[in-house]
Amino acid sequence: MTTLTKQQQDPAARAGLPKAGKSARRSLTNRLGDMKVALFFIFPAMIGFVLFYLVPTIRGVYLSFTEYSILGEPTWIGIKNYSAMLGDELFWNAMAVTVQYVGLNIGFQTVIALGLALLMHRVAKSTFIRGALLLPFLVANVIVALLWFWMLDYQMGIVNEIISWMGLPRIAFFGSEQWAIPTIAAVNVWRHMGYTALLLFAGLQSIPNHVYEVASLDGASPTRTFWSITMPLLRPVLVLVLVVTVIGSFQVFDTVAVTTGGGPINASRVIQMYIYQKAFGESDFGYASALSVILFLILALVAFVQMKFLKGNESDLD
To answer: I need a labelling partner for 187 at 20 to 30 A (CA). Which of 73, 168, 197, 257 fits?
Structure first.
């Protein structure tokens, strides 16, 4: 009987194909090489994340269980900082003011941004117009706050000058308990609505045109098309926008700090302002850390609820 060589016995070898074992090893080697390259580029960002986010977060959680001022060493006191919040009227007032601001800011910003996105999608095709909508977002928050603070000044602001010229009484936009939070919300809506509109516009661009063509052939009105096609297919992007804007709204600080400083009479003292005042105004870093931890948990819960009940990870587009 003739003895066959290994090359004759292996069909892959007769066909001129590489052996499976060598191919698998080569593929594994390539993947490891790609991973090393990826880690090389990720490593600097990971260092920044660990040093400026992870370590401060862990230290902040630890300090929330201590009594600590910057001039001394932390003293462990357990959950006393958290229990003190239950009777802290300023904390509950700050949370109520923050929720009021978030409701106004998110409500108006989302509706206006969605309207602008629809206009850009259906009417305004100019790149210049789309870029102009983004201009307020490119200006620093402090500059925007100062600009509107001067424009809405009670005595010399151009807005109150126009109101006075129309024969109406002047309005203390930043100096009134009634107007402080709505005014701050309006300023931030003006600054962020262009950016939010562009995010929603990108979501509208991802909806296929043939869906609208079919709806048009079926005789669907623009209103029916909007509620039955546009909104369901836009839901994943809209939920993402809501999560991002809600988290950002809960962390509003610079506009308040520049315009009202939390006044008048705590009418605009949002939770971030209260944390800042506790830490750097009263040097109570332990309690301020506890407030920050509570805020973090609230934001995590709000984001989870939004993603869960609004089904942000699901799409009606098959």
So the answer is: 168
The CA distance from 98 to 268, in Å, is 8
290, two tokens: 């506890």
- Residues paired with residue 75 on neighbouring β-strands, in sequence order: 67
Whole-prediction pTM = 0.85
Q: How many CA atoms lie within 13 A of 153 on its CB side?
A: 8
Length of the chain: 318
pLDDT per residue over 245-294, tens digit each?
Answer: 999 999 999 999 999 999 898 999 999 999 999 999 999 999 999 999 99
Contact assessment for residue 179 and residue 268, using Cβ atoms and an 8 Å cutoff:
no
Helices (H) and strands (E) counted in the chain, each on its own, are 16, 2
CB burial class (10 A; 0-12, 13-18, 19+) of residue 161?
A: middle
Q: Round the CA-based radius of gyration of the chain to a whole number and report it.
A: 28
d(CA 188, CA 185): 5
pLDDT of residue 149: 96
Residue entry with tokens 């698998």: 24
DSSP annotation of 227 reads: I
Residue carrying structure tokens 């009479």: 265
Alpha helices by DSSP H, listed for 251-284, are 254-259, 271-276
CA gap 240, 237 in Å, rounded: 5
Please state at what angle helix 231-250 crosses helix 89-122, rounded to 10 degrees: 140
Record the tokens describing residue 180, joined without a space. 């402080």
Range list of β-strands (E), the chain? 66-67, 75-76
pLDDT in tens, 141-153: 999 999 999 999 9
| Cα–Cα distance measured from residue 225 to residue 118, given in angstroms and rounded to the nearest whole number | 12
- The first and second tokens of residue 66, run together, are 């201590």
The string of pLDDT tens digits covering residues 56-75 is 999 999 999 999 988 889 99
